[in-house]
Protein backbone atom coordinates (compact mmCIF):
# COMPACT_ATOMS: atom_id res chain seq x y z
CA UNK A 1 0.00 0.00 0.00
CA UNK A 2 1.19 3.50 -0.86
CA UNK A 3 1.45 5.57 2.33
CA UNK A 4 -0.23 8.88 1.50
CA UNK A 5 -0.66 11.60 4.11
CA UNK A 6 -4.15 11.24 5.62
CA UNK A 7 -5.90 13.98 7.59
CA UNK A 8 -8.99 13.40 9.69
CA UNK A 9 -11.06 16.55 10.24
CA UNK A 10 -12.79 15.79 13.55
CA UNK A 11 -11.27 13.34 16.05
CA UNK A 12 -14.42 11.62 17.32
CA UNK A 13 -15.43 7.98 17.61
CA UNK A 14 -15.24 7.02 13.95
CA UNK A 15 -11.91 8.77 13.39
CA UNK A 16 -10.47 7.05 16.44
CA UNK A 17 -11.68 3.64 15.19
CA UNK A 18 -10.19 4.09 11.71
CA UNK A 19 -6.87 5.48 12.98
CA UNK A 20 -6.50 2.60 15.45
CA UNK A 21 -7.12 0.15 12.61
CA UNK A 22 -4.54 1.84 10.41
CA UNK A 23 -1.89 1.94 13.16
CA UNK A 24 -2.55 -1.70 14.12
CA UNK A 25 -1.94 -2.59 10.48
CA UNK A 26 1.42 -0.80 10.42
CA UNK A 27 0.43 2.48 8.71
CA UNK A 28 3.19 5.01 9.58
CA UNK A 29 1.93 7.28 12.38
CA UNK A 30 3.77 10.32 10.95
CA UNK A 31 1.57 10.04 7.84
CA UNK A 32 -1.64 10.52 9.84
CA UNK A 33 -3.01 13.78 11.27
CA UNK A 34 -6.22 14.43 13.18
CA UNK A 35 -7.66 17.87 13.86
CA UNK A 36 -10.18 18.74 16.56
CA UNK A 37 -11.18 21.97 18.31
CA UNK A 38 -10.80 20.54 21.81
CA UNK A 39 -7.52 18.94 22.89
CA UNK A 40 -8.61 15.97 25.06
CA UNK A 41 -9.43 13.57 22.17
CA UNK A 42 -6.22 14.54 20.37
CA UNK A 43 -4.18 13.82 23.50
CA UNK A 44 -5.61 10.30 23.65
CA UNK A 45 -4.72 9.72 19.99
CA UNK A 46 -1.19 11.07 20.57
CA UNK A 47 -0.72 8.80 23.61
CA UNK A 48 -2.16 5.68 21.95
CA UNK A 49 -1.16 6.12 18.30
CA UNK A 50 1.61 8.78 18.22
CA UNK A 51 -0.04 10.56 15.26
CA UNK A 52 0.27 14.23 14.27
CA UNK A 53 -2.50 16.49 15.60
CA UNK A 54 -3.63 20.08 15.40
CA UNK A 55 -6.44 22.30 16.60
CA UNK A 56 -6.40 23.97 13.19
CA UNK A 57 -8.24 22.41 10.25
CA UNK A 58 -6.04 24.47 7.92
CA UNK A 59 -2.97 22.61 9.25
CA UNK A 60 -4.85 19.42 8.41
CA UNK A 61 -5.62 20.56 4.87
CA UNK A 62 -1.98 21.52 4.34
CA UNK A 63 -0.80 18.11 5.62
CA UNK A 64 -3.16 15.67 3.92
CA UNK A 65 -3.24 14.20 0.41
CA UNK A 66 -6.46 12.52 1.49
CA UNK A 67 -8.78 14.52 3.76
CA UNK A 68 -11.37 12.54 5.69
CA UNK A 69 -14.28 14.75 6.77
CA UNK A 70 -15.45 13.16 10.02
CA UNK A 71 -17.57 15.83 11.69
CA UNK A 72 -21.31 15.61 12.35
CA UNK A 73 -23.40 16.27 9.22
CA UNK A 74 -24.94 19.43 10.67
CA UNK A 75 -21.44 20.94 11.12
CA UNK A 76 -20.07 20.01 7.70
CA UNK A 77 -21.04 23.18 5.86
CA UNK A 78 -19.63 25.48 8.55
CA UNK A 79 -16.40 23.47 8.84
CA UNK A 80 -15.77 23.45 5.06
CA UNK A 81 -16.61 27.15 4.72
CA UNK A 82 -13.88 27.95 7.25
CA UNK A 83 -11.07 26.23 5.29
CA UNK A 84 -8.81 29.17 4.47
CA UNK A 85 -6.86 28.23 1.35
CA UNK A 86 -9.64 27.34 -1.13
CA UNK A 87 -7.14 26.91 -4.04
CA UNK A 88 -5.28 24.19 -2.15
CA UNK A 89 -8.46 22.07 -1.93
CA UNK A 90 -8.41 21.07 -5.61
CA UNK A 91 -5.24 18.94 -5.18
CA UNK A 92 -6.80 16.80 -2.47
CA UNK A 93 -8.99 13.75 -2.40
CA UNK A 94 -11.86 14.34 0.04
CA UNK A 95 -13.65 11.52 1.82
CA UNK A 96 -16.89 12.20 3.66
CA UNK A 97 -18.17 9.72 6.22
CA UNK A 98 -21.18 11.91 7.08
CA UNK A 99 -24.63 10.43 6.54
CA UNK A 100 -27.05 12.24 4.25
CA UNK A 101 -24.82 14.77 2.45
CA UNK A 102 -24.63 14.02 -1.30
CA UNK A 103 -21.41 14.60 -3.27
CA UNK A 104 -22.99 17.50 -5.23
CA UNK A 105 -23.68 19.32 -1.98
CA UNK A 106 -20.22 18.45 -0.60
CA UNK A 107 -18.71 19.82 -3.81
CA UNK A 108 -20.54 23.13 -3.25
CA UNK A 109 -19.18 23.23 0.30
CA UNK A 110 -15.65 22.54 -1.00
CA UNK A 111 -15.40 25.34 -3.53
CA UNK A 112 -16.35 23.12 -6.50
CA UNK A 113 -13.95 20.24 -5.77
CA UNK A 114 -15.24 17.03 -7.41
CA UNK A 115 -12.62 14.65 -6.11
CA UNK A 116 -14.93 13.30 -3.41
CA UNK A 117 -15.55 9.80 -2.10
CA UNK A 118 -18.43 8.99 0.23
CA UNK A 119 -17.95 6.27 2.81
CA UNK A 120 -20.62 4.93 5.12
CA UNK A 121 -18.99 2.95 7.94
CA UNK A 122 -20.65 1.40 11.01
CA UNK A 123 -19.75 1.19 14.69
CA UNK A 124 -18.23 -2.35 14.67
CA UNK A 125 -15.36 -0.58 12.85
CA UNK A 126 -14.22 0.29 16.39
CA UNK A 127 -13.36 -3.40 16.94
CA UNK A 128 -12.06 -4.06 13.44
CA UNK A 129 -15.32 -5.68 12.32
CA UNK A 130 -16.89 -2.76 10.48
CA UNK A 131 -18.80 -2.76 7.22
CA UNK A 132 -18.40 0.27 4.95
CA UNK A 133 -20.17 1.18 1.76
CA UNK A 134 -18.10 3.33 -0.61
CA UNK A 135 -19.25 5.53 -3.49
CA UNK A 136 -16.99 7.59 -5.75
CA UNK A 137 -17.98 9.81 -8.65
CA UNK A 138 -16.51 8.89 -12.06
CA UNK A 139 -14.05 11.81 -11.86
CA UNK A 140 -12.25 10.31 -8.85
CA UNK A 141 -9.04 8.55 -9.94
CA UNK A 142 -9.18 4.76 -9.54
CA UNK A 143 -6.00 4.97 -7.46
CA UNK A 144 -7.80 7.19 -4.91
CA UNK A 145 -10.86 4.92 -4.80
CA UNK A 146 -8.60 1.93 -4.17
CA UNK A 147 -6.73 3.84 -1.45
CA UNK A 148 -10.01 4.61 0.36
CA UNK A 149 -11.12 0.96 0.07
CA UNK A 150 -7.73 -0.11 1.49
CA UNK A 151 -8.10 2.29 4.43
CA UNK A 152 -11.60 1.07 5.29
CA UNK A 153 -10.50 -2.58 5.03
CA UNK A 154 -8.20 -1.90 7.99
CA UNK A 155 -11.33 -1.73 10.18
CA UNK A 156 -13.54 -4.31 8.48
CA UNK A 157 -14.92 -5.06 5.05
CA UNK A 158 -16.13 -2.87 2.17
CA UNK A 159 -18.68 -2.82 -0.65
CA UNK A 160 -18.23 -0.39 -3.55
CA UNK A 161 -21.52 0.92 -5.00
CA UNK A 162 -21.73 2.63 -8.39
CA UNK A 163 -24.88 4.67 -7.76
CA UNK A 164 -24.91 7.33 -5.03
CA UNK A 165 -28.51 6.51 -4.07
CA UNK A 166 -27.26 3.11 -2.99
CA UNK A 167 -25.28 4.75 -0.17
CA UNK A 168 -28.65 5.19 1.56
CA UNK A 169 -29.31 1.47 1.14
CA UNK A 170 -25.88 0.88 2.71
CA UNK A 171 -27.06 2.98 5.66
CA UNK A 172 -30.22 0.84 5.99
CA UNK A 173 -28.41 -2.50 5.61
CA UNK A 174 -25.14 -1.90 7.46
CA UNK A 175 -24.73 1.64 8.88
CA UNK A 176 -27.83 1.44 11.06
CA UNK A 177 -28.20 -2.32 11.33
CA UNK A 178 -25.98 -2.96 14.38
CA UNK A 179 -28.81 -1.22 16.29
CA UNK A 180 -31.38 -3.68 14.84
CA UNK A 181 -29.27 -6.62 16.00
CA UNK A 182 -28.81 -5.05 19.45
CA UNK A 183 -32.59 -4.58 19.63
CA UNK A 184 -33.12 -8.26 18.83
CA UNK A 185 -30.57 -9.16 21.53
CA UNK A 186 -32.36 -6.88 24.00
CA UNK A 187 -35.75 -8.48 23.31
CA UNK A 188 -34.43 -12.05 23.48
CA UNK A 189 -32.45 -11.38 26.65
CA UNK A 190 -35.50 -9.84 28.32
CA UNK A 191 -37.64 -12.87 27.48
CA UNK A 192 -34.98 -15.34 28.67
CA UNK A 193 -34.95 -13.47 32.01
CA UNK A 194 -38.76 -13.49 32.03
CA UNK A 195 -38.57 -17.27 31.58
CA UNK A 196 -36.42 -17.56 34.73
CA UNK A 197 -32.74 -17.20 33.79
CA UNK A 198 -30.52 -14.67 35.46
CA UNK A 199 -29.15 -11.68 33.49
CA UNK A 200 -25.65 -13.13 33.03
CA UNK A 201 -27.02 -16.43 31.73
CA UNK A 202 -29.45 -14.67 29.38
CA UNK A 203 -26.75 -12.37 28.01
CA UNK A 204 -24.28 -15.19 27.42
CA UNK A 205 -26.83 -17.40 25.65
CA UNK A 206 -28.07 -14.66 23.33
CA UNK A 207 -24.72 -13.06 22.48
CA UNK A 208 -22.97 -16.35 21.73
CA UNK A 209 -25.92 -17.62 19.64
CA UNK A 210 -25.84 -14.37 17.64
CA UNK A 211 -22.07 -14.45 17.25
CA UNK A 212 -22.08 -18.12 16.19
CA UNK A 213 -24.88 -17.51 13.67
CA UNK A 214 -23.05 -14.50 12.20
CA UNK A 215 -19.88 -16.59 11.89
CA UNK A 216 -21.82 -19.41 10.18
CA UNK A 217 -23.27 -16.90 7.71
CA UNK A 218 -19.84 -15.48 6.96
CA UNK A 219 -18.10 -18.82 6.66
CA UNK A 220 -20.78 -20.33 4.37
CA UNK A 221 -21.10 -17.66 1.70
CA UNK A 222 -22.21 -20.30 -0.82
CA UNK A 223 -25.32 -21.00 1.30
CA UNK A 224 -28.29 -18.63 1.33
CA UNK A 225 -29.45 -17.49 4.79
CA UNK A 226 -32.75 -19.30 4.05
CA UNK A 227 -30.80 -22.55 3.58
CA UNK A 228 -28.89 -22.10 6.83
CA UNK A 229 -32.23 -21.49 8.53
CA UNK A 230 -33.79 -24.58 6.91
CA UNK A 231 -30.79 -26.63 8.08
CA UNK A 232 -31.66 -25.92 11.73
CA UNK A 233 -35.44 -26.11 11.37
CA UNK A 234 -36.86 -29.62 11.54
CA UNK A 235 -40.54 -29.74 10.71
CA UNK A 236 -42.66 -29.88 13.85
CA UNK A 237 -39.69 -29.07 16.11
CA UNK A 238 -39.14 -26.17 18.48
CA UNK A 239 -37.25 -23.95 16.01
CA UNK A 240 -40.00 -24.50 13.44
CA UNK A 241 -42.62 -23.26 15.91
CA UNK A 242 -40.57 -20.18 16.79
CA UNK A 243 -39.89 -19.31 13.13
CA UNK A 244 -43.57 -19.79 12.26
CA UNK A 245 -44.48 -17.41 15.08
CA UNK A 246 -42.04 -14.78 13.73
CA UNK A 247 -43.39 -15.22 10.20
CA UNK A 248 -46.99 -14.96 11.43
CA UNK A 249 -45.94 -11.64 12.94
CA UNK A 250 -44.64 -10.54 9.51
CA UNK A 251 -40.97 -10.34 10.48
CA UNK A 252 -39.89 -9.90 6.82
CA UNK A 253 -42.21 -6.91 6.29
CA UNK A 254 -41.20 -5.45 9.66
CA UNK A 255 -37.55 -5.37 8.58
CA UNK A 256 -38.43 -4.08 5.12
CA UNK A 257 -40.35 -1.19 6.70
CA UNK A 258 -37.49 -0.42 9.10
CA UNK A 259 -34.96 -0.28 6.27
CA UNK A 260 -37.28 1.91 4.18
CA UNK A 261 -37.62 4.26 7.17
CA UNK A 262 -33.81 4.56 7.38
CA UNK A 263 -33.58 5.37 3.65
CA UNK A 264 -36.44 7.90 3.92
CA UNK A 265 -34.62 9.66 6.77
CA UNK A 266 -31.34 9.73 4.80
CA UNK A 267 -33.23 11.29 1.87
CA UNK A 268 -34.71 13.92 4.19
CA UNK A 269 -31.26 14.67 5.66
CA UNK A 270 -29.85 15.26 2.18
CA UNK A 271 -32.21 18.26 1.92
CA UNK A 272 -31.36 19.57 5.41
CA UNK A 273 -27.60 20.15 5.13
N1 LIG B 1 -20.48 6.62 14.71
C1 LIG B 1 -21.07 5.94 13.70
O1 LIG B 1 -21.59 4.84 13.83
C2 LIG B 1 -21.08 6.50 12.32
C3 LIG B 1 -21.39 5.65 11.27
C4 LIG B 1 -21.37 6.17 9.99
C5 LIG B 1 -21.07 7.50 9.79
N2 LIG B 1 -20.81 8.30 10.84
C6 LIG B 1 -20.54 9.72 10.58
O2 LIG B 1 -19.21 9.99 10.99
C7 LIG B 1 -19.13 11.35 11.39
C8 LIG B 1 -18.47 11.40 12.75
O3 LIG B 1 -19.24 10.62 13.65
P1 LIG B 1 -18.68 10.26 15.08
O4 LIG B 1 -19.59 9.24 15.65
O5 LIG B 1 -17.21 10.00 15.04
O6 LIG B 1 -18.97 11.67 15.82
P2 LIG B 1 -18.23 12.35 17.06
O7 LIG B 1 -17.65 11.31 17.95
O8 LIG B 1 -19.15 13.35 17.62
O9 LIG B 1 -17.00 13.11 16.34
C9 LIG B 1 -17.11 14.33 15.70
C10 LIG B 1 -15.88 15.15 16.06
O10 LIG B 1 -15.89 16.36 15.32
C11 LIG B 1 -15.28 17.34 16.15
N3 LIG B 1 -15.54 18.69 15.67
C12 LIG B 1 -16.55 19.54 16.00
N4 LIG B 1 -16.38 20.73 15.36
C13 LIG B 1 -15.25 20.60 14.60
C14 LIG B 1 -14.55 21.49 13.75
N5 LIG B 1 -14.99 22.73 13.50
N6 LIG B 1 -13.42 21.04 13.17
C15 LIG B 1 -12.97 19.79 13.39
N7 LIG B 1 -13.59 18.91 14.21
C16 LIG B 1 -14.70 19.32 14.80
C17 LIG B 1 -15.89 17.07 17.51
O11 LIG B 1 -15.09 17.68 18.50
P3 LIG B 1 -15.68 18.05 19.96
O12 LIG B 1 -16.29 16.81 20.51
O13 LIG B 1 -14.48 18.50 20.67
O14 LIG B 1 -16.70 19.12 19.71
C18 LIG B 1 -15.81 15.54 17.55
O15 LIG B 1 -14.59 15.10 18.10
C19 LIG B 1 -20.57 11.90 11.39
O16 LIG B 1 -20.77 12.67 10.24
C20 LIG B 1 -21.42 10.68 11.38
O17 LIG B 1 -22.64 10.88 10.67
C21 LIG B 1 -20.77 7.83 12.11
TrEMBL record:
Class in the EC hierarchy, top level: oxidoreductase
Subcellular location: Cytoplasm
Key words, A-Z: Amino-acid biosynthesis, Cytoplasm, NADP, Oxidoreductase, Proline biosynthesis
A molecular function (GO) term: pyrroline-5-carboxylate reductase activity
GO CC terms: cytoplasm
Pyrroline-5-carboxylate reductase dimerisation domain segment(s): 164-269
Associated pathway: Amino-acid biosynthesis; L-proline biosynthesis; L-proline from L-glutamate 5-semialdehyde: step 1/1
Similarity comment: Belongs to the pyrroline-5-carboxylate reductase family.
Alphabetized NCBIfam families for the sequence: proC (TIGR00112)
Name of protein: Pyrroline-5-carboxylate reductase
Species this chain originates from: Agaribacter marinus
Gene that specifies this protein: proC
Amino acid sequence: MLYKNITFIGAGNMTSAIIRGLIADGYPSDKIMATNPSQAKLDILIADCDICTSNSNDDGIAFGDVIILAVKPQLMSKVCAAFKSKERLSNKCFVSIAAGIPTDRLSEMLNGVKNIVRVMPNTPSAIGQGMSGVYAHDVVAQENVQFVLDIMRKVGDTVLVDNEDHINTVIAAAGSSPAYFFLIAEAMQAEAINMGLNKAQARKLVQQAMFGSAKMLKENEDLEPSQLRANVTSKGGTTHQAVLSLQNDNIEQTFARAMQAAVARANEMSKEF
